């Protein structure tokens, strides 16, 4: 079963961390990725740029309209994710709890099962 473990970031929370705390987060992610690869549960991870660098695309009157910046005015934004292939939801939750962000008040880690991939519904 594949699960997306997404990390929701609040820039104000990150800005309040010390350099040592930020370094510990990075090192924690490094260990987490190494452990996932060793266990064979790693599929993919991606980190995303700040939403201020995003483009929001909508279609109005049959024409694309592009605006800069985040779609929503929110404190939190999707900062990145891990895609894992695990035996069950409980294992995905166990892994999510090991992500350094989960231990920081004001940051969030979400676990969602992948419903389909490459156009194929999973049984």
TrEMBL record:
Give the signal peptide, or none: none
- Residues passing through the membrane, by range: none
Q: Which InterPro entries match?
A: Dimeric_a/b-barrel (IPR011008), YCII (IPR005545)
Q: Where is the YCII-related domain?
A: 1-114
Question: Which family is this protein grouped under?
Answer: Belongs to the YciI family.
What's the protein here called? YCII-related domain-containing protein
Q: From which organism does this entry originate?
A: Actinomadura logoneensis
């Amino acid at each position: 079963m594949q699960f997306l473990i997404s990390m929701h970031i609040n820039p104000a929370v990150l800005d309040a961390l010390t350099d040592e705390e930020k370094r510990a987060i990075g090192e924690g992610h490094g260990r987490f990725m190494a452990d996932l690869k060793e266990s064979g549960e790693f599929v993919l991870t991606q980190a995303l740029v700040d939403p201020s660098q995003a483009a929001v695309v909508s279609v109005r009157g049959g024409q694309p309209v592009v605006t800069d910046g985040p779609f929503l005015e929110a404190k939190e934004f999707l900062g990145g994710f891990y895609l894992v292939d695990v035996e069950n939801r409980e294992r995905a939750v166990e892994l999510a709890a090991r992500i350094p962000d989960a231990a920081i008040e004001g940051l969030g880690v979400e676990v969602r099962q992948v419903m389909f991939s490459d156009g194929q519904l999973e049984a």
